[in-house]
Design goal:
Blueprint (H helix, E strand, L loop, with lengths): L5 H19 L3 H7 L59 H145 L5 E2 L24 E2 L7 E5 L2 E6 L2 E6 L2 E5 L6 E2 L7 E5 L2 E6 L2 E8 L2 E7 L2
Length: 355
Protein backbone atom coordinates (compact mmCIF):
# COMPACT_ATOMS: atom_id res chain seq x y z
CA UNK A 1 0.00 0.00 0.00
CA UNK A 2 1.60 3.19 -1.10
CA UNK A 3 1.79 6.20 1.15
CA UNK A 4 0.29 9.58 0.24
CA UNK A 5 2.27 12.71 0.18
CA UNK A 6 1.61 14.32 3.54
CA UNK A 7 1.11 17.77 2.04
CA UNK A 8 -1.29 16.48 -0.58
CA UNK A 9 -3.18 14.43 1.94
CA UNK A 10 -3.50 17.39 4.23
CA UNK A 11 -4.64 19.67 1.39
CA UNK A 12 -7.25 17.11 0.37
CA UNK A 13 -8.44 16.88 3.93
CA UNK A 14 -8.73 20.66 4.14
CA UNK A 15 -10.80 20.77 0.93
CA UNK A 16 -12.99 17.96 2.16
CA UNK A 17 -13.60 19.68 5.47
CA UNK A 18 -14.26 23.02 3.71
CA UNK A 19 -16.75 21.33 1.37
CA UNK A 20 -18.43 19.67 4.30
CA UNK A 21 -18.58 23.02 6.17
CA UNK A 22 -20.13 24.68 3.11
CA UNK A 23 -22.74 21.90 2.90
CA UNK A 24 -23.64 22.27 6.55
CA UNK A 25 -24.07 26.05 6.16
CA UNK A 26 -26.98 25.57 3.67
CA UNK A 27 -29.41 24.82 6.45
CA UNK A 28 -28.88 25.87 10.01
CA UNK A 29 -30.94 22.95 11.16
CA UNK A 30 -28.13 20.54 10.26
CA UNK A 31 -25.80 22.16 12.73
CA UNK A 32 -28.21 21.36 15.51
CA UNK A 33 -28.28 17.70 14.60
CA UNK A 34 -24.56 17.03 14.93
CA UNK A 35 -24.09 18.32 18.45
CA UNK A 36 -20.80 19.97 17.55
CA UNK A 37 -19.07 22.03 14.90
CA UNK A 38 -15.88 23.44 13.56
CA UNK A 39 -14.13 26.20 15.43
CA UNK A 40 -11.16 28.34 14.71
CA UNK A 41 -10.19 29.82 11.39
CA UNK A 42 -7.43 30.44 8.91
CA UNK A 43 -4.54 32.77 9.81
CA UNK A 44 -2.20 33.09 6.84
CA UNK A 45 -1.60 29.47 6.12
CA UNK A 46 -3.10 28.62 9.46
CA UNK A 47 -5.29 25.70 10.16
CA UNK A 48 -8.06 24.40 12.30
CA UNK A 49 -7.58 25.27 15.90
CA UNK A 50 -9.50 24.29 18.96
CA UNK A 51 -12.38 22.53 17.18
CA UNK A 52 -13.40 19.12 16.08
CA UNK A 53 -16.20 16.82 15.22
CA UNK A 54 -18.34 16.01 18.13
CA UNK A 55 -19.68 12.76 16.76
CA UNK A 56 -18.16 11.15 13.69
CA UNK A 57 -18.04 7.47 14.48
CA UNK A 58 -17.21 8.38 18.09
CA UNK A 59 -13.99 10.12 17.01
CA UNK A 60 -12.70 13.56 16.17
CA UNK A 61 -9.63 15.50 15.54
CA UNK A 62 -8.20 18.80 16.69
CA UNK A 63 -5.10 20.78 16.54
CA UNK A 64 -3.84 23.66 14.49
CA UNK A 65 -2.12 24.36 11.28
CA UNK A 66 0.39 27.22 11.08
CA UNK A 67 2.53 27.65 8.03
CA UNK A 68 3.71 24.20 7.21
CA UNK A 69 3.28 22.86 10.68
CA UNK A 70 1.66 19.64 11.66
CA UNK A 71 -1.74 18.41 12.83
CA UNK A 72 -1.27 17.51 16.44
CA UNK A 73 -3.26 16.73 19.55
CA UNK A 74 -5.69 14.41 17.80
CA UNK A 75 -7.50 12.13 20.14
CA UNK A 76 -10.09 10.84 17.69
CA UNK A 77 -9.62 8.96 14.52
CA UNK A 78 -11.30 7.96 11.33
CA UNK A 79 -12.34 4.37 11.54
CA UNK A 80 -11.00 4.31 15.09
CA UNK A 81 -7.39 4.78 13.93
CA UNK A 82 -5.42 7.94 14.70
CA UNK A 83 -2.63 9.50 12.82
CA UNK A 84 0.11 12.00 13.56
CA UNK A 85 1.80 13.87 10.79
CA UNK A 86 4.62 14.84 13.12
CA UNK A 87 5.55 11.21 13.57
CA UNK A 88 6.49 10.94 9.96
CA UNK A 89 3.91 8.23 9.39
CA UNK A 90 2.50 8.28 5.88
CA UNK A 91 -1.20 8.50 5.00
CA UNK A 92 -2.78 6.00 2.69
CA UNK A 93 -6.15 6.18 0.90
CA UNK A 94 -7.54 3.09 2.55
CA UNK A 95 -7.36 4.76 5.92
CA UNK A 96 -10.00 7.33 4.93
CA UNK A 97 -12.39 5.00 3.12
CA UNK A 98 -14.08 3.73 6.25
CA UNK A 99 -14.33 7.15 7.87
CA UNK A 100 -16.01 8.83 4.83
CA UNK A 101 -18.44 5.91 4.52
CA UNK A 102 -19.45 6.42 8.11
CA UNK A 103 -19.77 10.16 7.47
CA UNK A 104 -22.08 9.54 4.50
CA UNK A 105 -24.23 7.15 6.51
CA UNK A 106 -24.44 9.63 9.36
CA UNK A 107 -25.30 12.42 6.92
CA UNK A 108 -28.12 10.41 5.34
CA UNK A 109 -29.40 9.42 8.73
CA UNK A 110 -29.34 13.05 9.92
CA UNK A 111 -31.09 14.20 6.74
CA UNK A 112 -33.81 11.62 7.30
CA UNK A 113 -34.14 12.75 10.87
CA UNK A 114 -34.28 16.36 9.71
CA UNK A 115 -36.98 15.57 7.15
CA UNK A 116 -38.94 13.69 9.80
CA UNK A 117 -38.50 16.56 12.21
CA UNK A 118 -39.54 19.01 9.52
CA UNK A 119 -42.59 16.92 8.72
CA UNK A 120 -43.38 16.76 12.42
CA UNK A 121 -43.11 20.54 12.61
CA UNK A 122 -45.36 20.87 9.55
CA UNK A 123 -47.84 18.49 11.11
CA UNK A 124 -47.63 20.37 14.42
CA UNK A 125 -48.09 23.67 12.64
CA UNK A 126 -51.06 22.31 10.69
CA UNK A 127 -52.51 20.91 13.87
CA UNK A 128 -52.00 24.23 15.62
CA UNK A 129 -53.59 26.00 12.65
CA UNK A 130 -56.52 23.61 12.76
CA UNK A 131 -56.79 24.08 16.51
CA UNK A 132 -56.70 27.83 16.07
CA UNK A 133 -59.34 27.56 13.34
CA UNK A 134 -61.49 25.35 15.53
CA UNK A 135 -60.99 27.76 18.43
CA UNK A 136 -62.01 30.68 16.22
CA UNK A 137 -65.06 28.77 15.01
CA UNK A 138 -65.97 27.89 18.60
CA UNK A 139 -65.49 31.50 19.64
CA UNK A 140 -67.68 32.61 16.74
CA UNK A 141 -70.31 30.07 17.74
CA UNK A 142 -70.11 31.17 21.36
CA UNK A 143 -70.29 34.80 20.30
CA UNK A 144 -73.30 34.14 18.08
CA UNK A 145 -74.97 32.18 20.85
CA UNK A 146 -74.24 34.93 23.38
CA UNK A 147 -75.46 37.55 20.91
CA UNK A 148 -78.68 35.63 20.34
CA UNK A 149 -79.08 35.13 24.07
CA UNK A 150 -78.52 38.84 24.69
CA UNK A 151 -81.01 39.66 21.93
CA UNK A 152 -83.58 37.30 23.39
CA UNK A 153 -83.02 38.75 26.85
CA UNK A 154 -83.30 42.31 25.52
CA UNK A 155 -86.45 41.43 23.57
CA UNK A 156 -87.94 39.75 26.61
CA UNK A 157 -87.10 42.75 28.79
CA UNK A 158 -88.59 45.07 26.18
CA UNK A 159 -91.78 43.04 26.04
CA UNK A 160 -91.92 42.89 29.82
CA UNK A 161 -91.41 46.65 30.05
CA UNK A 162 -94.11 47.18 27.44
CA UNK A 163 -96.53 44.93 29.30
CA UNK A 164 -95.76 46.71 32.56
CA UNK A 165 -96.23 50.12 30.94
CA UNK A 166 -99.51 48.96 29.37
CA UNK A 167 -100.74 47.65 32.71
CA UNK A 168 -99.78 50.91 34.41
CA UNK A 169 -101.53 52.89 31.67
CA UNK A 170 -104.69 50.81 32.00
CA UNK A 171 -104.56 51.09 35.78
CA UNK A 172 -104.12 54.87 35.56
CA UNK A 173 -107.00 55.07 33.08
CA UNK A 174 -109.25 53.00 35.34
CA UNK A 175 -108.31 55.13 38.33
CA UNK A 176 -108.95 58.35 36.40
CA UNK A 177 -112.28 56.99 35.15
CA UNK A 178 -113.28 55.97 38.67
CA UNK A 179 -112.29 59.39 40.00
CA UNK A 180 -114.25 61.04 37.21
CA UNK A 181 -117.32 58.92 38.04
CA UNK A 182 -116.92 59.70 41.72
CA UNK A 183 -116.65 63.41 40.97
CA UNK A 184 -119.69 63.18 38.71
CA UNK A 185 -121.68 61.38 41.40
CA UNK A 186 -120.54 63.89 44.00
CA UNK A 187 -121.52 66.74 41.67
CA UNK A 188 -124.96 65.23 41.10
CA UNK A 189 -125.36 64.69 44.81
CA UNK A 190 -124.37 68.28 45.44
CA UNK A 191 -126.79 69.42 42.75
CA UNK A 192 -129.55 67.35 44.32
CA UNK A 193 -128.69 68.72 47.73
CA UNK A 194 -128.58 72.22 46.33
CA UNK A 195 -131.91 71.72 44.58
CA UNK A 196 -133.43 70.30 47.74
CA UNK A 197 -132.03 73.20 49.73
CA UNK A 198 -133.51 75.59 47.20
CA UNK A 199 -136.86 73.80 47.40
CA UNK A 200 -136.71 73.84 51.18
CA UNK A 201 -135.75 77.49 51.14
CA UNK A 202 -138.57 78.27 48.67
CA UNK A 203 -141.06 76.31 50.76
CA UNK A 204 -139.88 78.06 53.89
CA UNK A 205 -140.07 81.40 52.11
CA UNK A 206 -143.56 80.60 50.83
CA UNK A 207 -144.62 79.46 54.26
CA UNK A 208 -143.20 82.62 55.75
CA UNK A 209 -145.08 84.67 53.18
CA UNK A 210 -148.27 82.76 53.92
CA UNK A 211 -147.76 83.22 57.61
CA UNK A 212 -147.02 86.88 57.11
CA UNK A 213 -150.02 87.18 54.74
CA UNK A 214 -152.26 85.41 57.19
CA UNK A 215 -150.99 87.60 59.97
CA UNK A 216 -151.43 90.67 57.80
CA UNK A 217 -154.89 89.50 56.73
CA UNK A 218 -155.83 88.77 60.30
CA UNK A 219 -154.73 92.24 61.22
CA UNK A 220 -156.80 93.64 58.36
CA UNK A 221 -159.75 91.52 59.42
CA UNK A 222 -159.34 92.69 62.95
CA UNK A 223 -159.10 96.25 61.74
CA UNK A 224 -162.12 95.71 59.47
CA UNK A 225 -164.09 94.17 62.29
CA UNK A 226 -163.21 97.09 64.47
CA UNK A 227 -164.21 99.44 61.68
CA UNK A 228 -167.44 97.52 61.11
CA UNK A 229 -168.19 97.47 64.76
CA UNK A 230 -167.51 101.15 64.98
CA UNK A 231 -169.72 101.72 61.92
CA UNK A 232 -172.55 99.70 63.39
CA UNK A 233 -172.23 101.49 66.63
CA UNK A 234 -172.31 104.72 64.73
CA UNK A 235 -175.54 103.85 62.91
CA UNK A 236 -177.06 102.46 66.05
CA UNK A 237 -176.31 105.64 67.86
CA UNK A 238 -177.15 108.09 65.05
CA UNK A 239 -179.65 106.18 62.85
CA UNK A 240 -179.62 105.84 59.02
CA UNK A 241 -181.99 108.46 57.55
CA UNK A 242 -182.42 106.88 54.06
CA UNK A 243 -183.00 103.29 55.30
CA UNK A 244 -183.50 100.13 53.13
CA UNK A 245 -186.27 98.99 50.88
CA UNK A 246 -187.30 95.29 50.71
CA UNK A 247 -189.65 93.75 48.12
CA UNK A 248 -193.15 92.99 49.48
CA UNK A 249 -192.85 95.84 51.89
CA UNK A 250 -193.58 99.51 51.45
CA UNK A 251 -191.95 102.52 52.90
CA UNK A 252 -188.58 102.76 54.56
CA UNK A 253 -187.20 101.08 57.57
CA UNK A 254 -186.08 103.31 60.42
CA UNK A 255 -182.64 103.51 61.75
CA UNK A 256 -181.33 100.42 63.46
CA UNK A 257 -181.92 98.20 60.41
CA UNK A 258 -178.21 98.48 59.69
CA UNK A 259 -177.60 95.84 62.33
CA UNK A 260 -178.32 93.29 59.64
CA UNK A 261 -175.05 94.18 57.87
CA UNK A 262 -173.20 91.66 60.03
CA UNK A 263 -175.01 88.69 58.52
CA UNK A 264 -175.39 90.02 54.96
CA UNK A 265 -178.51 91.24 53.20
CA UNK A 266 -180.97 89.25 51.16
CA UNK A 267 -180.50 89.20 47.41
CA UNK A 268 -182.89 91.69 45.77
CA UNK A 269 -182.84 94.12 48.64
CA UNK A 270 -182.35 97.68 47.52
CA UNK A 271 -180.83 100.76 49.05
CA UNK A 272 -180.76 104.35 48.08
CA UNK A 273 -177.09 104.64 49.00
CA UNK A 274 -174.11 102.32 49.58
CA UNK A 275 -173.04 101.55 53.12
CA UNK A 276 -169.89 103.23 54.49
CA UNK A 277 -166.56 101.47 53.75
CA UNK A 278 -167.66 99.78 50.51
CA UNK A 279 -165.08 98.66 47.89
CA UNK A 280 -165.50 98.74 44.12
CA UNK A 281 -164.68 95.38 42.46
CA UNK A 282 -164.96 94.09 38.89
CA UNK A 283 -166.08 90.87 37.25
CA UNK A 284 -166.04 90.60 33.45
CA UNK A 285 -165.42 94.35 33.30
CA UNK A 286 -168.65 94.97 35.21
CA UNK A 287 -168.39 97.10 38.38
CA UNK A 288 -169.74 95.78 41.66
CA UNK A 289 -169.66 97.12 45.16
CA UNK A 290 -168.63 95.06 48.14
CA UNK A 291 -169.24 95.76 51.83
CA UNK A 292 -169.44 93.41 54.81
CA UNK A 293 -170.03 90.26 52.74
CA UNK A 294 -172.77 91.79 50.54
CA UNK A 295 -172.45 92.68 46.86
CA UNK A 296 -174.32 95.56 45.18
CA UNK A 297 -174.90 96.66 41.66
CA UNK A 298 -176.27 100.03 40.55
CA UNK A 299 -179.97 100.27 39.62
CA UNK A 300 -182.39 103.00 38.51
CA UNK A 301 -183.52 103.66 42.09
CA UNK A 302 -180.12 103.33 43.72
CA UNK A 303 -178.40 99.99 44.45
CA UNK A 304 -179.62 96.44 44.69
CA UNK A 305 -178.12 93.43 46.50
CA UNK A 306 -176.94 90.73 43.99
CA UNK A 307 -175.30 87.30 44.06
CA UNK A 308 -171.55 87.23 44.57
CA UNK A 309 -169.88 87.66 41.11
CA UNK A 310 -167.63 84.61 40.52
CA UNK A 311 -164.05 85.59 39.60
CA UNK A 312 -164.16 88.94 41.38
CA UNK A 313 -161.66 89.53 44.20
CA UNK A 314 -162.17 91.29 47.50
CA UNK A 315 -159.45 92.78 49.68
CA UNK A 316 -160.75 91.45 53.03
CA UNK A 317 -163.00 88.70 54.26
CA UNK A 318 -166.26 89.58 55.97
CA UNK A 319 -166.43 89.15 59.75
CA UNK A 320 -167.62 85.73 60.87
CA UNK A 321 -166.13 83.71 57.97
CA UNK A 322 -165.25 80.04 58.39
CA UNK A 323 -162.29 78.00 57.08
CA UNK A 324 -162.61 74.79 55.06
CA UNK A 325 -160.17 72.53 53.12
CA UNK A 326 -161.11 71.05 49.74
CA UNK A 327 -158.63 68.76 47.90
CA UNK A 328 -155.81 69.99 50.14
CA UNK A 329 -156.56 73.67 49.41
CA UNK A 330 -157.72 76.09 52.11
CA UNK A 331 -160.90 78.07 51.40
CA UNK A 332 -162.93 80.60 53.37
CA UNK A 333 -166.78 80.69 53.42
CA UNK A 334 -169.35 83.25 54.46
CA UNK A 335 -173.10 83.45 53.76
CA UNK A 336 -172.81 80.69 51.12
CA UNK A 337 -169.98 82.40 49.25
CA UNK A 338 -166.58 80.62 48.91
CA UNK A 339 -163.32 82.59 48.80
CA UNK A 340 -159.84 81.34 47.79
CA UNK A 341 -156.76 83.28 48.97
CA UNK A 342 -153.83 84.13 46.64
CA UNK A 343 -151.14 86.77 46.26
CA UNK A 344 -151.59 89.78 44.02
CA UNK A 345 -149.19 92.69 44.02
CA UNK A 346 -147.46 91.42 47.14
CA UNK A 347 -150.73 91.27 49.13
CA UNK A 348 -153.20 88.51 49.93
CA UNK A 349 -156.57 88.91 48.20
CA UNK A 350 -159.58 86.61 48.03
CA UNK A 351 -161.23 85.43 44.87
CA UNK A 352 -164.84 84.30 44.68
CA UNK A 353 -164.90 80.73 43.33
CA UNK A 354 -167.13 77.71 42.82
CA UNK A 355 -165.03 74.87 44.27
Amino acid sequence: MSLLNPKMAFSGLVLLVASFSFTLSVDAAYADRFGGGFGGGFSGFGGFHGGGFGDFNRGGFGGDFRGQGSISGSDGDFNRSGFDLNSGQSLSSDRFSGSFQNFDNNFNQNRSQYQQSRQNEINSTEQNRQNDFNSVQQNRSDYEQNRQSDYNTTEQNRQSDYNTAEQNRQSDYNTAEQNRQNDFNTYNQNVDNLQQNRINAADQYQQNRINAGNEYQQNRINAANNLQENSQNYWKNNGWNDGYYYPGHSGYYPSGIGAGFATGLAVGASAATLPPGYTTIYANNTPYYYANGSFYSQSNNGYVVVNAPVGATVPILPPGYTTTTINGITYYQYAGVTYRPFYSGGEVVYQIVNP
